[in-house]
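agent> Task received from the user: take the single chain below, predict its 3D structure, and emit C-alpha cells. No templates, no multimer pairing.
agent> Plan: (1) validate residues, (2) run structure prediction, (3) serialize to C-alpha cells, (4) report one or two observations.
agent> Step 1 OK, no nonstandard residues flagged.
tool_call: predict_structure(input=
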Amino acid sequence: MSTSLKRSETVCCGVTRARSEPVPAHVDGDITRPNSVLGKAQLLLEAFGSGTHQLRLTELSRRSGIPKASTHRLAQELVQWGLLERQGDSYQLGMQLFSLGQRVPASAMLRAVARPLLTDLFARTRATLHLAVLDGSHVLFLEKVAGAANIHTHSHIGGRLPASCTATGKVLLALHRGGPEAVQRLARTGLPSLTTRSVATTEKLGQQLAAVADRGYALEHGEVLSGHSSLAVPVTGADGTVHAAVSATATTARMQTGSLLPELWSAAAGIARRLDHATLPLHNDTDQ
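)
tool_result: status=success, residues=288
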C-alpha cells in the first residue's frame, strides 16, 4: 500500500503533539469526494499514487473508495478509452493519459524550454534535477534529469509529493500566488510526513516559508528522503509571476549550497526568459 502520513495534532497540558496517521496517497486535503461517474473515474485514476504502477481490482476499489462492482465496470470502460491498461490481473495507467498530458499547454511549454537547460546543468553538477509546479498542497514534477547512479525512487515525472516537505514545495508555498491557499489547507488538514525530519507543525512551516521569502530559495535536509538534501529556487517571469521551481538533490554529504545555488539561479533565469519569449503575444500589423 502506497500512503503518505497525515499529521493530526492533539493538545495535552498546553503542549501540541503530532501523531501520524496513514492516508491514501491520492487524498489531498479537504477536497470534496466526487459522486458523478466522471468524478468516480477521476478517483480511480488518482488511486495510482506516486510510485504505484499496478493495482489489482480489490486494491483499486479500496484506494478509490468505490464499490468493487462499480470499480470493475468503470475500469473496463477506462481500458476501452486507453486511459487504463490491463496487465494480467492488474490495471495500470494507459498511454492515452501520457498523450493527453503532453497536450497541456503550460506544462508542455515549461518542459520544452526547461529540459535543455536542466540537461546542461546536470552535466555540470551531476545532481538530480527537478522542475515542479504547485498542485494544491502538493508539488507536481514536470521534469526530472538524473544519472543512473543517482536516480531517487521518491520522485518521477508526473508524480506528486507534499509541498511542505520538499524544497520545490517550500519555494512555491512561499512565493507562488497559490501558496497562501495551500498553506491554509495544510493548516486545516495537518502536515503530511515522509520522514522523521519532515516539518511537523504549521508554526514551524510558517517560519521556514518566511525564511524562504526573505532569501529567495529553499533548502531541506532529509525531509523527503533520509540522507539526502534538496536546494530549490523559483522560476520567475519578467512580470514577477512565479511559474515553477527548479531543484537540485544530492546526498547530504555532497550538497554544496555555495556552488549549486548560482547554477540553479542561472538555470531558472534562463527558463524564465525562454518561457517569457515563448508566451509573447503575436502582434498583427493590421491591429496597429
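agent> Step 4: summary for the user.
The radius of gyration is 20 Å.
agent> Done.
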